[in-house]
Amino acid sequence: MPTGQRSIMRTLTFFQPQRLVFGCGCLAECLAYLKSLAPAHLFILTSGPLASTASSLQTELGRAGVSASVEAGIEGEPTIADFEAVTERARRAGATCILGLGGGSVLDVAKLVAAFVNGSQSINETFGIGLLHGRACHLVCMPTTSGTGSEVSPNAILLDESAKLKKAVISPHLVPDATFIDPELTISVPTAVTAATGLDALAHCVEAYTNKFAHPLVDLYALEGIALCGRFLLRAVQSPADMEAREGMSLAGLYGGLCLGPVNTAAGHALAYPLGAEYHIAHGLSVALVQPHVFRFNAEATPERHAAVARALGVADRPDSLETALAGARAIEQLTKDCGLDSHLGAYGVKPDDIPALAASAMTVTRLLRNNPQPVTEADCVQIYRDCFRPNAAPQLHAARCRPEG
Ligand SMILES: [Fe+2]
What we know:
Blueprint: E1 19-22, H1 27-37, E2 42-46, H2 51-63, E3 68-71, H3 80-93, E4 97-102, H4 104-116, E5 128-129, E6 138-143, E7 155-160, E8 165-170, E9 178-181, H5 191-209, H6 216-238, H7 243-260, H8 267-279, H9 283-299, H10 303-312, H11 321-338, H12 355-362, H13 366-369, H14 378-387
Parallel strand pairs: 1-9, 2-3, 2-4, 4-6, 5-8, 6-9
Antiparallel strand pairs: 7-8
């Protein structure tokens, strides 16, 4: 670079599936792809509600001479023990290709099984960023919910039950070889899951766009994902068969997933993880519970970025950026309520006395807290959790901590 010219944009690397197929009915293309791939043994990982779809795939593949087995045991938030048991069964089956067909939990486990079925590392050696050595097994993902973004992300989350912590493996080796996103598969998803996963997609986009390490290349996906959530989430919740809304939310989930690798989330997810680990609140719901309060907290640091989020959600401009941003927090809160979710932490068995332990646990998620546009202390976490017990909380301004946007 010539002397005197300095780049102001940091270098960013995108890892994406080699094949990304999006569109209604692309389940058929996934089947054709697997037939042409003709693996020695395909291990299909799914959950109970999708077992019949997986069995149909298994039958079709069998007719084409492709050996396949179905594992339908992944439900809820998977633990390390769940993952290890499934990996052992995949190993015994002689899996050379893994297909994850399901929601984020299924896909996370499928990604890890593909990496560990013939790997030599232990899972504990790989928690963190970039510690996984490689993946020899082919990996195909097909999401049946719209929101987690796991189908394109390098992230996989497991619950460490002994530590009561959600732990992440983050590695480019976890990005699938091929991903097929068929919005038709999301039609039968229960309303509460549509709501929670949709709010998770919104959170991925919001936390990436307002991230300390936000990047113009990712901003594109993030802002468009936020706009899609604003337009289609409520429609998908209220009218499950509305295909335009389902397509819009599948796209929003994809865009949110594309934000996770190069930028990732921040304090919203860091404060949500203890709620999932301690109280088994579903991931999307736990994120939705804290999101408006974290948004208010962060808006003071970068009001312009937060105002842009509000505008993407359809909020009209207010006299200044911070007011627009705070109106955005109210819009997120209202969307959560309109989706039928109780936004009061007490409704999920959490007690105010639990807050100090929750705050201490959230502070351990340093890999995400360091992404936050506003520095977060343990006292801040305590205040944010307290706000979660006060629906429609008035903005808790921390004017002394405001700093210029950057
Ligand atoms: Fe998430």
